[in-house]
Design a protein that fits this description.
mainly beta, 28-stranded antiparallel β-sheet, single chain, 820 residues
Length: 820
């Protein structure tokens, strides 16, 4: 590891000097910007654009004298000068030669405040943009994003995304998607991932990308990718945004945050900080019917919990332009979350319709989780032919403390204690360390073809403890049946190559990724002693063919293969206590599941997209399998390689503008799903339809007011071994711009009719149960955002100075089975 780190750092230092002699042949363009009174227009933004395609090459700002200077390679350029309160000024083209000191005449800006306001309104991007390989959600264009977390946005306002009760998130079928932030995989899954996304406010995210056909340069994990693009300004000068809000459903919620950016010359410093306080509740009921020796027993559980969490989410980074073609960046980011739970669980046991006894379980949980990431990245242009090199080195440190104290009380049918109370202690601290490094190389053969190659190394170590046992004579003890230590290490070495070629109206993208995985699970208790080792090599091909016969039609055919490796809590052999008749267990022998996916799509005029897709998953394990002992009445839920999952679907997406004041987006996704169990898991072979409908509509009520309404519906369907009821909800909101459009006030309501919940029934082999799962979803939120500084054209500029590639996903953390 030290050798790898040293090699990367040496590579950074060597590359920082590559082609520095190019500075000798660079040119510069300089001038002066004045206002209408012929005074220096200080802090005006100057953008250098390519004369070929108007792409942004460099940006800077004028000093106190109104002067600016930009150093750039020889070429043909335009200048776009802007300042709040003035009309944009576009000049050029200018042709710069080698060693050319090019001076332009004074540029005088013309005041036009009313016109600027009009431009601000028209520049707002649509919430949904459909592209051949992905769907882009412009979060800042949605009123529902204000005050809501990323998890809530995915649940409520992200067409095509599905979030189940266990925190699993998908964008095709019900298969889990790989969650990334700025193209880096998030290091958590399941409930831990849900907690993280709950702590990230929508106000800190610029876009959400739903990528259904990722190329080979991405990790093969997951059936598609959901990438969160963080806000990161690139305008010259200083700008920042503050936001604050409050919400109320059953309990109060508050949030506040700051987003800033300072770009001066070669240095760009950026950062965000967000704080949230959220109290919510969770109602969960299960009714389990057991028939044994001619006697019917009902084990009915009513669970209610309140959760108070305080979250701190931050990013602080800087990019430094070593030369005009080379940039090095440093980023520190993280989340710190504190949770306090109060749980009440009542189990009523009935035999032949007559109440036998009741067990009341009360517990308090204190949980603290810290996830800190350190990122060093580099991007550089190697020569005039356009060869590029990108490098990334990331270290993650994740610590969690989890303390739960459980009190069990036992009552007979008359409500009288029939045995002493049972007091239990459940401590499950854990630590995850992750190293990941990646190097990518881009070699353009011509203006229409290129080759991308890369290698990646990742190493993960998860150290988990479970200390569980009863109180004996006033002292908590550790039970050998439950207590355990489990250390899991995983190393993945991967490489990929992508080839792109554009010939007339056809574009071919073909790639191959290879991943070699080495993992070891080591337990040290009566539950598991010894090691479980896995070593496997996998190949993941990817092909994409695009055909564009004219300006309004585009066809896309693609295929790729993927892998989903188990979360840590799924392979961790701990036996989690829920109540005396309900446990959850890990499976250290769980194998990864593999997906093969193909899709054909047609994009008409960027308005209507039709997609036919199919996928098959082998070693499918994306469900909880319940093993019930009819004699003891104990149920143990676990995850195992259950069988195969197949889905064939048709998806229609439309972005319409029925009127100048009305924008409407519609999504219809109809699929047929089939589950077939492996023989050792039973005889399940069942198919069922699944229909998802969603719409988001914006109505412009004047120049500064927008009303938004959104709704989602999913039909009844069968998934895993459970029959799911239909699920639907409606959201609404209104926004008002003020203070010359620098401020925005938003009011929104999620799940207006309080209809969102999960209801399902399971009737498979000897298991017969029904489940009702309801979170707090009807919430009213009021939020205010204000932008300071140079915010002109922000959001239209995409920062491409640093390539922020992925780091290895890690997985869940031990003990989360009891923190519902």
């Amino acid at each position: 590891m030290r050798l790898l780190t040293g090699c990367l750092l040496i590579a950074f230092l060597l590359l920082s000097g590559v082609r520095t002699y190019a500075q000798e042949t660079d040119s510069d363009i300089h001038g002066k910007v004045l206002d209408e009174k012929h005074l220096a227009a200080e802090a005006s933004t100057v953008l250098l654009l390519s004369a070929v395609d108007s792409s942004i090459i460099r940006s800077t700002s004028c000093d106190r004298a109104g002067l600016f200077k930009i150093i750039v390679k020889p070429g043909k350029y335009l200048l776009l000068i802007s300042k709040i309160g003035y009309t944009q000024s576009l000049t050029g083209p200018y042709t710069l030669k080698k060693n050319h000191d090019f001076a332009i005449g004074d540029i005088t800006l013309v005041p036009t405040v009313p016109q600027l306001k009009e431009v601000s309104v028209n520049a707002q991007r649509q919430y949904i943009e459909v592209k051949p390989d992905k769907v882009v959600l412009n979060v800042q264009s949605s009123i529902m994003a204000e005050g809501n977390s990323i998890l809530e946005i995915l649940k409520q306002a992200a067409p095509g995304a599905h979030v189940d009760g266990r925190g699993n998130i998908s964008i095709i079928g019900h298969q889990g998607a790989l969650i990334t932030i700025d193209n880096k995989p998030v290091n958590l899954t399941g409930q831990e991932l849900a907690d993280l996304l709950q702590s990230i406010p929508g106000s800190s995210i610029q876009q959400i990308e739903l990528i259904t056909n990722p190329s080979s340069k991405y990790d093969a994990a997951g059936a598609g990718i959901i990438n969160l693009v963080s806000k990161k300004g690139v305008n010259a000068g200083t700008n920042f945004t503050v936001n604050a809000g409050a919400g109320y459903g059953k309990f109060l919620k508050t949030n506040a945050g700051l987003n800033f950016n300072n770009r001066m010359g070669k240095i760009n410093i950026f950062g965000t900080y967000n704080y949230g306080s959220n109290k919510t509740d969770h109602t969960f009921t299960t009714d389990r019917i057991i028939n044994y020796n001619g006697i019917r027993s009902d084990y009915d559980v009513n669970y209610y919990a309140t959760q108070q969490n305080y979250s701190h989410n931050f990013r602080l980074g800087t990019d430094y332009a070593i030369t005009p073609d080379q940039t090095i960046g440093v980023l520190v980011s993280g989340t710190i979350n504190k949770y306090d739970f109060k749980k009440n669980n009542t189990l009523a046991i009935t035999n032949q319709g007559v109440l036998d006894s009741t067990i009341s379980t009360k517990s308090t949980i204190s949980r603290m989780q810290k996830n800190i990431s350190y990122d060093l990245n580099y991007s550089g242009k190697l020569d005039d032919e356009g060869r590029m090199l990108y490098a990334d080195l990331v270290y993650n440190d994740i610590d969690r403390q989890y303390n739960e104290y459980i009190d069990n009380y036992f009552y007979d049918a008359a409500g009288i204690n029939y045995r002493p109370a049972l007091y239990l202690q459940n401590l499950s601290p854990s630590n995850i360390n992750i190293w990941a490094s990646k190097i990518d190389f881009v070699n353009p053969f011509s203006s229409t073809s290129k080759l991308e190659m890369g290698i990646k190394y990742s190493w993960v170590k998860s150290n988990n403890d479970l200390i569980f046992g009863p109180e004996v004579n006033g002292v908590y003890t550790a039970s050998p049946t439950f207590s355990n230590n489990f250390i899991y290490t995983e190393n993945i070495n991967s490489a990929y190559a992508n080839y792109t070629n554009h010939i007339n109206k056809v574009t071919l993208i073909t790639g191959l990724r290879v991943e070699q995985t080495n993992s070891t699970g080591m337990g040290g208790s009566s539950i598991m002693s010894g090691n479980v080792k896995k070593n496997y090599l996998d190949w993941f091909p990817q092909v994409q063919l695009d055909y564009q016969p004219d300006s309004k039609n585009e066809f896309n055919l693609s295929y790729n293969r993927g892998i989903t490796r188990a979360a840590y809590d799924a392979v961790n052999p701990f036996l989690y206590y829920v109540d005396l008749y309900d446990y959850r267990a890990g499976n250290p022998n769980l194998l990864p599941q593999y997906s093969n996916k193909i899709q054909l799509s047609h994009n008409y005029n960027k308005v209507l997209v039709t997609t036919l897709y199919g996928m098959q998953v082998t070693n499918f394990y994306d469900l909880l399998d319940y093993v019930q002992d009819d004699a003891s009445k104990v149920s143990i839920s676990t995850t195992k390689n259950f069988g195969t999952y197949s889905v064939l679907g048709l998806k229609l997406s439309a972005s319409l503008n029925p009127a100048t004041w009305w924008d409407a987006n519609f999504l219809v996704d109809g699929a047929y799903q089939r589950f077939k169990a492996y023989p050792q898991n039973g005889d399940l072979n069942k198919g069922t339809p699944d229909i998802n409908l969603s719409t988001t509509q914006d109505f412009k009520l004047g120049r500064t007011t927008i009303f938004e309404i959104a709704s989602k519906y999913e039909s009844p369907t069968f998934y895993g071994i459970g029959q799911l009821k239909s699920n639907y909800h409606v959201d609404g909101g209104i926004s008002q711009q003020m203070f010359h459009r620098n401020g925005t006030l938003r009011l929104n309501v999620t799940d207006i009719f309080n209809t969102q919940r999960d209801k399902s029934t399971i009737n498979y082999q000897n298991l017969n149960m029904s489940v009702y799962d309801k979170l707090e979803t009807r919430i009213v939120r009021l939020g205010f955002t204000y932008r300071f500084g140079n915010v002109f054209l922000k959001g239209n500029i995409k920062h491409t100075a640093v390539n922020e590639d992925e780091q290895k996903r890690a997985g869940g953390v031990a003990g989360n089975g009891t923190a519902n």
